Write the structure tokens for this entry.
Amino acid sequence: MDSTGVTEKTERLKEVVSALISEAGQLGASAAEAGMSMEQGLSVTARLGEVETVERHQEQGLGLTVYFGQRKGSASTTDFSPDAIRETAEAACRIAKLASEDKFSGLPDASLLATGKLPDLNLYHPWDVDAEQAIELAIECEESARSYDAEISNSEGATVSQHQSIRVLGNSLGLLQGYPATRHSVSCSVIGQRGDSMQRDYWYSVARDALDLEVAVDIGRKAAERTVSRLGARSISTRNSPVLYSAEAASSLIRNFLGAISGGNLYRKSSFLLDSLGKQVFPDFIRIHEQPFLPKGLGSATFDGEGVALRARDIVNEGVVRSYLLSSYSARKLGMETTGNAGGVHNLTVEPGEQDLSDLLASMGSGLLVTELMGQGVNMVTGGYSRGASGFWVENGEIQFPVEEITIAGNLSDMLKNIVAIGKDIDLRGNIRTGSILVSEMTLAGE
């Protein structure tokens, strides 16, 4: 999928999507939506200086959803031939005719769709790296980690991946949009040993453009640094303490909040933040907003999974919930309008403060720095929160020793209100962009 042919391929996929929607209409569907993707990539893993895996993948898929009134049916195929298109449309229509009516189902409002010319978000940057070059890069990354310290005793390997795709979405209301995108990564994971203590840790870099990736030797070095720093970890006694979530761990806390204001949990009444719109949930210095149009952003897009046009907007401002996260279906269930979040959020950003990690450690004084979370101990209905954690114990603003085999617990309502600072050390490697988050008090369960 080279740069010169990607426009032509995108147009070809649009033709297939249009044909499928037309076929559904001819079969009597009152409305239809079709999505199509074509992907290819290369992934190479080296371990202990040797090639472990070389994988090439190439896949394609086509999905159709049809409506007969408010009865819905879906079918999919990986075959783009005219016969397969006709059979897919027939299958979706058969299913719809057997389905029960759902008064909330249907396509989005036509006025909300992303029609017309859309901005170029600079998401397509094919990486001209062949298998041999990727192998060299992976070995270089892993060697940097293995040679960092004598206490690095083993390796889980280093992986170099390149990926490119084209996605097209259309419906019977006139939507027909598509764009190519790329996503590349380099990662490394190693094992350290000191006496009877063994630890593993990792580091990775991911970007739309390979030129924006961290240098491979730096990725390996960071993986090794993190691993060695965890050696000698021990538990601590049960207590109440401030907790500082490192940037890479903090995104999970924000993700819990997003789950609580998502349409599915709200209309099922399975959220601790029911009826929170317009209410204070965070301290008044907290702002959380979507930035869908960031050039090269990992979460950038011009429309959501239903084709609804996106816009930059606040989810939380001055600590107050300004918007839920709704698809067309969940919005109708709640008597509201879609927020363009079918399929998730887009470059969700927690506005950073002025302090970096060292400043936050100093502000915390004594407490727990969490760098890794384990388990899924979150009750979305009550807000109950209990997760396994590891990290570092801090005294007088300085890291004292690594910590493991503890549980951090609290209630999400209280935790969100008790956030006292957001760091400026933003982790840009995902769709949730946040710095470290300091919570004034949680329960730590240890020895």
